[in-house]
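Hi U.,

Before I forget, here's the chain from the pilot set. I'm dumping it here mostly so it's searchable later in email.
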Amino acid sequence: MKEIMKKHVNIEILDEDELVFLNGGTSAADVDKILKGLKDFIEQLQLSFWGGESMLVGSKVSKIINKVSDFCKSNNIFFSVHFTTNGTMLPKIVLESIKNITTNFQITIDGSKEQHNKVRGSKSFDSYERIWQHIHTLNESLKDCYFSLRINYDSETFKDMKGIINDILGPHINNDKVVISLKKVW
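Structure:
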């Protein structure tokens, strides 16, 4: 049984409210207890941030990553981080905390630039361009970083699939680090 458990553990952080819980007061001790309880049973640990937008609370995310990373280093446990994010925010403090950690990002794109910005646009910035800027920054700054680009599609999205593919194959990203996932939306 012990050998079966020595595979991989994934700790999921669901949203920014849970980050507040995990990073505040007595709950930090709870995180320590969980990690200490796992150390004899695991060889790999992945910390996943998803739901809501964890990048809104970058300093809290960074503190948690640093805490778990230090624990894993001191216990010879392989550590990786996964983010499910809309890709429009990339706090420098988070980028700094993951620079030497294997990191995976699932980033959603809602079609071509025009279609994406129609669906998820912002009045203050070009959402599509901001996502590609962040992907480029991550690709250039992190040596061990991988992407799952989830393209939400409908009948409108497919009208300019060539434009989306050109953006993916363009200069923003090392294509050996990319998986494309198509997700039908209604």
